[in-house]
Each structure stands twice: as C-alpha cells, then as structure tokens.
Amino acid sequence: MTSWRAVSRRRVLTAGAIVLPLAATASCGVPEALRKPPGLSASVQTLRSSITAEQALVDDYRAVIRRYPQLSGRLDSFLSQHQQHLAQLQGRLVVPPHVTMTPVPSPSPAGPASPGAAGTADAAVALLVKAEQNAAAAQLSRLDGAPASLAQLLASIAASEATHAVALGQS
Amino acid sequence: MTDTQGVQALQGVLAAENAAVYGYGLAGAQLSGSQLTTAQQDWNLHRAAGVSVSSMITERGGTPAPAAAVYRPPFAVNSAASARALAAVLENGLVQAYLALVALDDAALRAFGASEMQAAAIRAAFWRGGTIPFPGLPASALR
After folding, report:
1. Looking at residue B68, which CATH number applies to its domain?
2. Which domain holds residue B43?
3. Which one, B63, B71, B117, B128, has the greatest CB density within 10 A?
C-alpha cells in the first residue's frame, strides 16, 4: 500500500521538476531551461550512491552464500537486513522520467577482493566484515548536507552495518 | 548566543547517558564474569560521555540538566537475563538520543551523533544478542 507520505514526496519531486524550468523561463525570457531540464539534486545523488552501495552488499552476500552454502544459516539474517535497507532507500527515490540515469561505479567491484571470489569460507566472511566496515564509513560520508530524514536513515543503516561487522567477526 | 536546537538535542543525549550510568549499576548487580566486566566498562564509558556531553552543552550556552537521584527501570531487574535486557534498552535509548543529533544542520554535531550511535548500536546488539536493520528509527519513520 502506498503511504500518504510517499505520495506526497512523489508530488513534491514531480512538481519540482516542472516548476523549476517554468520559473527560470519567466525570469529571463529565454526558454533555455525548457530545452535542458534540471539535473539530479544532491539528495538524489546521495540516494543513488547509497542504493548502489547497498546493492553491492546484497550481491556480495548472495555470491558468498552461493559459493559457500554452509554459511547460509550464519549470513541469511544479515542479507535480509541489507535487503530491507535497499528497499527503504529505493522507496525514497522517485526520479522524473526525463532524467537520464547513469550507473554509479560500484564501491566493491568484482575482483580478487570480492567476497564471493574468496578461496575459503573464512576468507569470504573476513571480506564481508571489511565490506560492512567500508559501507558504514561510506554512509557517514554522505550525511553532510543531506536532508534530516535522509541523514537519519543513512546513519541508522550505517549503525546496522557497523553491528554486522562486529557480529560477523565474532560469529 | 545559545544554540537552542543543539542544546536541546544534547540534553536528550545527556539524559540518556545519565539513565545509562544508573541502569548499568542495577544491571551489574545481576551479572558476573565477562558480562560483569563488560557492564563495568560500559558504565565507565557512559560516565565519561556524560561529562563530555555536559561540556558540549555549556559550550553552546546551555546548562546541563542534572541527573535524577533515582531511575525506575522499565521492568524488574532481578536476574542476569533481565540485566542484559535492561542494558539493551539503555543502549537503544542512547541510539535514539544520538540519532536526534543527526537531524541537526550542524555538521559537527551530525557527525558526532552518527558516530556515537554506531557505538551504542554495537553495545545494544551485544546485550540483545543480535542485530537489527534500523537501529534507533521508529517503525513510523519507515515506509
């Protein structure tokens, strides 16, 4: 079910996309802004990078569980929490259809340091711990300038990831 | 000039730190071994945090609210299990208090709040025995 707040946010974002070009047109008399719609706001950029980072963590967990199924019982709850993070972040991102979405480079690209490519189950878990630590630190770096409610969501997700890193390292 | 919003949020943190100092005293009486050691470390940590946060309030033109003489726990603390549960409740209260700092425009307080709520969330997870997806956020904040 769509919440009242979600509907309100969509209306605000959509209205912003429409009103800004018109306002610019009225002030200068040249319809330049109509030919070039406004780009993505800083908040949207922040959300996009958070979503990309969270998706990378989900992919890492899935890759490790696929390669080392015996870790499933140990990792499933962490994976589930990251999926909840991702859903919350994606639920806040509504981009007007005219805005071109370009991929953001993944913070943990596949390669030798990818948890799913680790040679042993223990090494994979160690890399997941590192990935959680890096993700928590990256979320904190996105707080400056973010709207209050988004900043609180990112800080909460960062705190969750910090607890994952500690719990994984001890389990 | 007083930083009203900052002082108000920091007073909330100070209240949670003071409650934690008192509460860890209650919890510690029911714990033993390594858990008692951990509770003592956390008790000392919260005492120091209370002093530090009081200074931050003063620096911003406020007056730190004094701790209450007695705090009533949310449930009877008469076993190791209830002591661990109380410690988790106390730390969760701190996560929420520090999260209030993250809503401020002051970048330094925002960063401080985010960092401290991570530490409190880690302690809460230890006492709770598990992690949660959104430490400090009420269900009403999620969609």
Report:
1. 1.20.1260.10
2. 4-130
3. B117
Are B121 and A140 a contacting pair at CB < 8 A?
A: no
Residue environment code for B79-100, b if the CB has 16+ CB neighbours within 10 A, otherwise e: eeebbbbbbbbbbbbbbbbbbb
Q: pLDDT (tens digit, 9 = 90+) per residue, A78-115?
A: 999 999 999 999 999 877 666 665 655 555 444 447 89
**In a domain? residue B136:** no
Number of domain units in chain B: 1
pLDDT tier at A52, thresholds 50, 70, 90? very high
A160 closest CB neighbour out of B99, B114, B132: B132
Residue B143: predicted pLDDT: 78
Is B98 part of any domain?
Answer: yes
Note whether A160 contacts B135, CB cutoff 8 Å. Answer: yes
Of B104, B122, B143, the CB nearest to A163: B122
The residue whose two tokens read 């980072």 is A53
Q: Which residue of B has its CA nearest to A92?
A: B143
Q: How many of the other CB atoms lie within 10 Å of CB of A53? A: 24
SS (H, E, C) A34-86: HHCCCCCCHHHHHHHHHHHHHHHHHHHHHHHHHHCHHHHHHHHHHHHHHHHHH
Give which of A63, A59, A53 is closest to A124, Cα–Cα.
A63
